[in-house]
Amino acid sequence: MKKITQDAGRKQLGDFAPDFAHFNDDVLFYENWNNEDIDLKTRCIITVVALMSSGITDSSLIYHLQNAKNNGVSKKEIAAIITHCAFYVG
């Protein structure tokens, strides 16, 4: 399986907040997203649900919806996830 990497933290905040960049890029995206205890499709679904339930509808949600699609979550599944969550998260 291809390892997931991220460098947005370093690119955007590396000089200003190097610890944040480390936790974002190395821990969240590299260690957490590459943990094989949960398959990538399920991890994508969990992330979309977490963002929705937190009220985050900005570019983060858009990015993770596209990421879910890229990792095997179908349009029909995404629609069902959004519908299901709407009853619980408002």
Walk me through the structure:
The structure is a single chain. The protein has about 90 residues and is mostly helical. It folds into two domains: about 1-35, no CATH class; about 40-90, no CATH class. About 70% of the residues lie in helices and about 0% in strands. It has helices at about 10-15, 20-30, 40-55, 60-70, 75-90. Helix 3 packs antiparallel against helix 4 and helix 3 (about 40-55) runs parallel beside helix 5 (about 75-90). It is globular. The N and C termini lie far apart (about 35 Å). The relative contact order is 0.11.
Keywords:
90 residues; 5 helices; mainly alpha
Structural classification: mainly alpha
Distance, first to last CA: 36 Å
Question: H/E order of the elements?
Answer: HHHHH
Radius of gyration (Å): 14 Å
Helix content: 55-70%
Blueprint (SSEs and pairs):
Elements: H1 8-13, H2 18-32, H3 40-53, H4 59-70, H5 75-89
Helix pairs in contact: 3-4, 3-5
Describe this structure in a few short sentences:
The chain has 90 residues and is mainly alpha-helical.
